[in-house]
From TrEMBL:
The keyword Cytoplasm applies. Keywords: ATP-binding, Chaperone, Cytoplasm, Magnesium, Metal-binding, Nucleotide-binding. Belongs to the CDC123 family. One of its GO terms (cellular component) is cytoplasm. One of its GO terms (molecular function) is ATP binding. It comes from Lachancea meyersii CBS 8951. This is Translation initiation factor eIF2 assembly protein. It is found in: Cytoplasm. Residues 74-94 have a biased composition (Acidic residues). Its main location: cytoplasm. Residues 74-98 are annotated as: Disordered.
Amino acid sequence: MSRYAELSNLSVSVQQIENCAFSRWYHLFHGSTPKAEIIKPVPAGFMEYLEQDGIRLPNDSNFKQSSYFQDVQETEDNEYSDWEQEENENENENGGEVMASQHDTKTEVTSMFPDLHQKLKGLFQEMGPLTPKLTWSSPKDATWILANNTLKCHEVNDVYLLLKASSHITHDLDRAFDECFDRETLKETPQTFGHELILRKWFDINPALEFRVFVKNSKIIGVSQRDLNFYDYLLPLVDTFKELIDEFIHEQVSQKFPDPSYVCDVYIPRPFQKVWLIDFNPFCRKTDSLMFSWHELITANENDIEDDYEMRLVKENNVARFAGKEHSESQVPKDVADAITNPDAIKELASKWSELLKMQQAEDSSEEE
């Protein structure tokens, strides 16, 4: 008769969550972490903007180079004469009312966080392409909203789109401390917590070479491949990866990070001589355990494992997995997905979207009056 294993308890404190905030550890590992700019505290106006429903993008007059507000250049791929006819008819009917309302709306968005907006534009000029993060999380689940399907941002509106479309960011804002046994000791609410906005200098990461390391009481108890697709060249490199990770965790990370138990993501690029620290996560169930189960990790005896921990890699090609996309549950609605392969559906969707925007702008204009 089979026996049922009791679900092991795992508690996490407010302090452990706070210790994983980017600004708490970045300065400790500056030489092993990609260059980043931390903006803290984030202005209240920007926090309010992130919490608002819908997505509105700033369009100040000094930022005309933004690709989001440039006129579409007619090509043989987008040559729809009936679209142009509808647009001309609407312009004739409404005159300049819609454009005026549109300008007012966008100006209002910018005025909620003008200093931050200018600072972000300056960072792009200084550092080039960037990738955003808010306190704990990157908006990895929202990459579908950018044309390049990555976190690579070329301008401030890319940043706003990613942050607004991400469920991970919403979790940071509203539910970061939900699983803490001592959350009643938290002086601020999740909404008033001193959040930080991080802009990292972009660099290309080969997802096959990123790994999640599970550390319990300062000892590694397991390492998992981060991207769950099959890469045949990884298996012969297991000993190399483990040696590099062992040295990095024991000689650097565990010596400096304040918690004895934690989860961290590392990146080991070719020629496999240096380990880059990407992120920290709390040692708790809310952190994705990837190729392990949390029951395995919690019940593992770190004293028995010592240096003989398991590094789990995907060992065979899974066609279904390879065909799927990570975070697909956070992506576009079905009507948008259907429109991708149907020109008529694209036309109809664009027309409806245009009408909705005009209705929203008209409502905003009437409210201001």
